[in-house]
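Hi everyone,

Forwarding the result from last night's run.
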Amino acid sequence: MRKLLQLAMLIVVAVSLPMIYNLVRQAHWEIEWWKAVLLILPDIGTVIAIVELNHSAEANELRGERNRLAESNNEICDQRIRLAEENNRLQQQLQDLQTERNEHLAQIAKNMQRPQTEAEIVAAKLRQHLGSPVVALNSDNSRWGGGPLIAEVTDENIVAEDVPRIVESRARRLG
């Protein structure tokens, strides 16, 4: 439709320009210059209208392109929001899985601990009584006078006893 209108305006200009030119040329001495300008104004207006119609078409095309880009931008924003929600869901799932993994690792570590030996159990009990007197029996079931004190229990399950009245101290290995 626009092209048809532009074509019609061009035909009007093409037909009217030679007629106006002849009219102005013949009346050059008879008509004043401002009247000649007034005769040309409608053709100038037609030319300006054709140019503006082309600019209008370009503006409409640019508006259409802007609308398409805005729709594309909205789709991209919607996609970004969906991806952010998916990322949050996956982060939560990852956190849940890591918590579950840590619980399983703790259970595995607990199951991997070796059972304590009898010597380790005795050493743990003796550590609770550091500095306490011990009843010491000889091979003939006689007791020591003033019994030794538990002085130290080492990591190697060795008990050091200290006999306060006797100058020497003894150490013996448990287990």
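The chain is about 65% helix and 10% strand.

Cheers,
N.
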